[in-house]
Amino acid sequence: MTSNICIEEEYRNPSQHTCERCEKRFTIKKGFEFNPNCGRDDYGSQKYNPHRECDGGTFNNGSSLKCQKCNSCPPPKLTASPCSAESDVVCCTEVEHVLDGRCIDRPVKTTAKTVVITTERIDSSSVWTTDSITSSSTSTSPASGPSTNDMNLTAVFVSVGILSILTLLCVLFILKRRTKRPKQERGCNGEMKEILDSKRIYSTAVFSIIDDNGNPKLPLSVTDTSFKLLAPEVQAAPLNTVLNNLDVLEELILLLDPDQISGAKNTRHLAAQCSFSFAWINYAYSKKDYKSPLVAVLEGVVAKNPDWTVGHLAGLLSGIGRNDAVEILAKLHASEKE
């Protein structure tokens, strides 16, 4: 020390007769510390340089009066830059590595996952397999449970699998429809209609009683066995005869109007064969408490085709598999013709 009055970090101001801090008169320099009493004696003479360099193993980054002891990087930390006179040692954390004297994050590790989605056709033993789907998921540290990326990846695979199954079912449905050979028949208004159900059996009698213009042919030439129940004069009787015979009409109503009895076809199917719209049929059934749907159908057919006969109706009933109704028509007598 050069002063016998002031402490080491201060110097003597003889004009004021006081001790003052070294940093008040001199600046703090990086890599240096102040000499005792800033190198000045009690009479104001500058005996030494105010500063001196930091010794080895110490540093001053410009924040203190004295040089500080250097620290070290304990394992597993890495040393990014060693201690110098102007800065302390720089340590990297476990998730960082050293690059050009700096600590930077470690590269992200990626793992590849391959998932194969397999769907099986229902109608055969052949197996349809989609292409393998490879994706990457990112992980920075071991996890005890499924990550968000894994959950999102699972959702994607499930969506792809469902879409593949739906696409396969649509293709099978289209192929199945194309393999069916459409049949044709003539409805109540003489128009040709396609029938896609190959298991449905239609009587040839309905064709035998209609010519190319949709008009009835007389005398009738019936080949279906169900028409053998009808006498020729009954076959040729006007269709209005059914509406005028209340006993026969009532039996037909009880037989055909009810819905879904043992899977048998009813007035709805007969009306469809006569080209009545679906809305019209539903409306007729909504008024069932006031008027029979069968009566409404017969009245509509008579209005559109006044030349139609009982044989026409018998052909349509046979076409929907209701020969039991044809047997009821056999109860009509030739004397009831109009």
Strand order of the largest sheet: 1-2
What is the molecular shape? rod-shaped
Q: Roughly how many Å is the radius of gyration?
A: 53 Å
- The residue-averaged pLDDT reads 75
Oligomeric organization of the protein chains: single chain
Unreliable residue stretches: 119-144, 181-186, 190-211, 214-223
Task: Provide keyphrases for this structure.
alpha+beta, single chain, two-stranded antiparallel sheet, rod-shaped, about 30% helix, about 350 residues
Characterization of the model:
This protein is an alpha+beta fold. The protein is 31% helix and 18% strand. The chain contains 11 helices and 16 strands. Strands 1-2 form a two-stranded antiparallel ribbon. It has a two-stranded antiparallel ribbon with strand order 3-4. Helix 10 runs antiparallel to helix 11. The longest helix has 31 residues, at 148-178. It starts with 9 loop residues before the first strand and ends in a 9-residue tail after the last helix. The model is unreliable at 119-144, 181-186, 190-211 and 214-223 (pLDDT under 50).
